[in-house]
Amino acid sequence: MYPAGKVISPCHHSSPAVSSRLRSVFRLQRIQSHMMSSHVDPEVLLEKVGRAGVITMNRPKVLNALNFTMIRQIYPQLKKWEKDNETDIVIIKGAGGKAFCAGGDIRAVTEAGKAGDSLAQDFFREEYILNNTIGAYRKPYIALIDGITMGGGVGLSVHGRFRVATEKTLFAMPETAIGLFPDVGGGYFLPRLQGKLGLFLALTGFRLKGRDVQRAGLATHFVESKKTQLELQQFFFFQRISTFCFVYHVSLSPPIRLFSASSVEGIMQNLKADGSEFAKKQILSKMSPMSMKITYKQLQAGAALSLPDVLVMEYRLSQACMRGCDFYEGVRAVLVDKDHNPKWNPSTLEEVSDHSVDQCFSSLGEKDLTF
């Protein structure tokens, strides 16, 4: 028997998989040992600059990927600054010039899932609690999304009051390519974008760049990268940010309307029938069929839910993914072996039953996410 409370994927119960599980334990121990090393630079810098609290994600070599240690540093500091009368605003940014935050530390989470380690539960639980805290923050929260902003990085920014894009911003939610779904509140903000833009971004992982991030409504402001220096953050953003709030509307082009269908299969049929260059570029056939069906239902449901309720739903989905196979296979294919040839199970949309999708949304009882 596996220890109570552990998350074990049914794909890892055979004898060869026991050896795989042991290797995962050792890899996870090495990752955790590295995270605790006193010889590495701080992964998050927390400082006060005047009356501004400034958070700097400081893992530039891995594009500021968000790990569990960082979540546990950022959350209590946000709560402290929210109550501090000497703190007027909070600014969050990434170090290194290439990325705000390229996503969560997915490799550590998958190793934990294969090893039966509780990080597979704790990471998602505490990340989503942090996302909700940002969404409900009582003081101006300014995310400088200067560079790559994906997955977990989106969760650290999009729910805040102000999101400042630059010409270097690259925004994406690429989770269906690794057997996951657009989490960190994706079920809340994506269906609230104009038309079917959110569903398009969710299913395809399409990358928005520069001003398009603001035009889509994902950023509230656009500033040239060279003007986001710290000395401007206090004065320009806090004192004058409301003056420079431009509203853009995305022109809903006909190709996006191909994503107006009552099912993922319907979208695939629309793309095939259209035959345009746009349609040919949408490589949905390479995405996890289970992930796409989960994502479709997630956005449908999330359109009518509050952010906290969406995050409760997404926590259930995260644990369903940890119990399944596609998440591990997607991470292997894209991030580990990098052969980009995942073997999805089920392998086609037609093999994904409505019942199997519905099960992913089922309550976890006392293990459900609570705020």
Automatic annotation (TrEMBL):
It is found in: Mitochondrion. Pfam families: ECH_2. InterPro entries: ClpP/crotonase-like_dom_sf, ECH_dom, HIBYL-CoA-H. GO terms for molecular function: 3-hydroxyisobutyryl-CoA hydrolase activity. GO terms for biological process: L-valine catabolic process. Residues 53-229, 257-361 form the Enoyl-CoA hydratase/isomerase domain. The keyword Hydrolase applies. Its main location: mitochondrion. Its EC number is 3.1.2.4. Signal peptide: none annotated. SUPFAM superfamilies: ClpP/crotonase. GO terms for cellular component: mitochondrion. Pathway: Amino-acid degradation; L-valine degradation. It catalyses: 3-hydroxy-2-methylpropanoyl-CoA + H2O = 3-hydroxy-2-methylpropanoate + CoA + H(+). Keywords: Branched-chain amino acid catabolism, Hydrolase, Mitochondrion. Hydrolyzes 3-hydroxyisobutyryl-CoA (HIBYL-CoA), a saline catabolite. Has high activity toward isobutyryl-CoA. Could be an isobutyryl-CoA dehydrogenase that functions in valine catabolism. Also hydrolyzes 3-hydroxypropanoyl-CoA. Belongs to the enoyl-CoA hydratase/isomerase family. This is 3-hydroxyisobutyryl-CoA hydrolase. It comes from Amphiprion ocellaris.
